[in-house]
Structure of SENP2 protease:
Amino acid sequence: SPWNPLFQAMESEISAAFDSGEPEDILSRAFKLTVTREDICTLQPLGWLNDRIMNFYMGLLVERSKKEGYPAVYAFNTFFYSKLSSTSHRGVKKWTKGVDIFEHDVILVPIHLKIHWTLLVVDIREKTIKYFDSLGQKGDHICKTVLKYLEEESKEKRNIELTASEWTLHSMGTEEIPQQNNGSDCGVFVCKFADFISRDKPISFTPEHMPYFRRKMVWEIIHQQLL
């Protein structure tokens, strides 16, 4: 209830994050990232989420996945896919230095397409690559690019050949996942798709949840803790 004192304390904290102080004030630091008030302000209604907010939130999801009972999650940062698509595996080989991504259950790849955020999800357990776009566009070529990356990464890191034919690639249809109803919520959709998937939960939110999710994310980023 809105009268719950905890809720009120959180609300006033969220409002203060938006309204008081200077744009360059640092509000959170983790995952080798620094989040300023200016970054946090992209979470205001109809704001465009920037790379820092996206990468910080992915960091929170990975952190949570280390707890008992969650699938093991690996998240690439938002610059990975554009680098991969322009240079192939060679250009991103060092990004996984000291990490075997195949030891994880789920790999999250947030993708920035010029002015739109989408999400690609690799489920190692199921051998699936799924593409989530809240504007309903298909990403079959993106799925193929990432499968090719996985083949090369597997060969290089583990000396194991992946059998491409065993993998299922799928762009989620508009009837399968919720769709945004404005031009600015794509980043929040990507974060919440990733949140639900990294808990093995069915995606059950709607565009109506977006204003609430934005405010919740402010609190979570400042406290470095998912509610």
User: Anything to note?
Assistant: The chain is about 40% helix and 15% strand.
